[in-house]
Amino acid sequence: MSRRSGKVRRVLSRIFKERQIYHRSDGVVHFISMSSKSQIALATVIGAALLWVAYASVNVVFKEQIIVAKDRDSRIMETTYSKRIRDAQEAYDDVSELNLIIQQNFDETMADISARHQLLQNMVERKTAIDQGLDTLAAGLAEAGGPSGQRPTNGNRVMIDVTPGEPTPRQSRIEATRRQGAEQVRDITPGGTASDAIHSMNKAAADLYTEQMLLLASLEEKANNKREQLQMILKSAGVPLDSVVTPAKISNITLAQGGPFIDISGGDEAAAKFYKHANRTAAAVDELAALQKAMQNVPLSSPLIVGRRFTSSFGIRRDPINGKYSRHYGVDFAAPWASPITATADGVVKFAGTRSGFGRVVEINHGNGFVTRYAHMNRISVKTGQKVKLHDKVGELGSSGRSTGPHVHYEVLFKGKPLNPRRFIEAGRYVFES
Questions:
Q1: Beta strands in 210-281 (DSSP E)
Q2: What's the rounded Cα separation, in Å, for the pair 90 and 367?
Q3: 240 φ/ψ angles, rounded to the nearest 5 degrees
Q4: Average pLDDT score over the chain
Q5: What is the mean pLDDT of residues 143-149?
Q6: What span, in angstroms and rounded, lies between the C-alpha atoms of 334 and 374?
Q7: 349-398 per-position pLDDT tens digit
Q8: How far is the C-alpha of 400 from the C-alpha of 361, rounded, in Å?
Q9: Model confidence at 122: pLDDT above 60
Q10: Which residue, among 196, 186, 216, 417, has the nearest Cα to 314 in the 3D structure?
Q11: Which of 105, 244, 251, 329 has the largest count of CB atoms under 10 Å?
Q12: Helix (H, G, I), strand (E, B) or coil at 279
């Protein structure tokens, strides 16, 4: 160790030999003697200064690079954060737009469903009111019974073919509508919507649409069947249909409508099909309502609601007084003296008084050309111009006028032409037994 240090000292002694620095000033020469130690010390100071300068320079350079690097990292972080904020805002905007679309879709769907529901409700209520009116009429006719006073027993029904020659069963029409509705469901339910919520909502709305279409089909079918039944009943009585129900001035199946044109091409074809079907169903219900209203004024009942006996028919008969053949424009019913004679349909009393051959007689105008006549009464209970309803009492059974005993002579006239009253009473029997 001492050998190595001695070697270092010898090397330093050779490098840093004692030197003199001469300096001449004003002709005088001066010198400064620098020993080896002084040179080493000076060299150490100069080296330390150079090292400090080098360190400071390097530190300044690297510090600037560090600042630049940090600034770059800061900008990268700021850019990344801004991008994330922008992405989050876009995602929020997308969600908000989707929610708005769902809300609009929901509002439109609910408005459409509500409109269809209201339309269906109105038609069902109208059909229910019609059925109630027919049920009331049937109950009133059942009170009088058939021509001889027979009532429905053991649930037996009089069968009448109201739809002859129908090529396919009625149920097939409902099934056809169900298949059509199922196809429509596929049409209005897209396979790949942007939102499962919209897809589910559209699917539920489509299922409800199918049920509404089926209800329309059922309502239309029932209205048409009931209308055909009533038409056959009137036909069996010999009543011309166009004389009972006034034909509509507009024959268009879509009824009288108006409003601005709103093109639905490429739009909601399901709504167009629904409302087209609804218009057709409404037309069927309207026709049934008109027919049901007219039925209230068709004399389908017997003039007696008590037990009676059929004693004389309509047409050619042997006169009960002189025995000669003659025309009889009504039918006769015998019953106990003073039995109540009632109106056979709604109407207004046209005449109440005495006429030759008829004795005490009442005539009722039922409208649509129908007039009924009740003769040979013991007492009249109404006055001319009085409104009467089905089975309102108009008088009491007697034997006034040209008569052989207590009975009621009953006539039905259509536009002044006498028709067979028994056919009307039989038609009324179809109403309450079918």
A1: none
A2: 75
A3: -65, 130
A4: 79
A5: 70
A6: 13
A7: 999 999 998 999 999 999 888 999 999 999 999 999 999 999 999 999 99
A8: 9
A9: yes
A10: 417
A11: 244
A12: helix
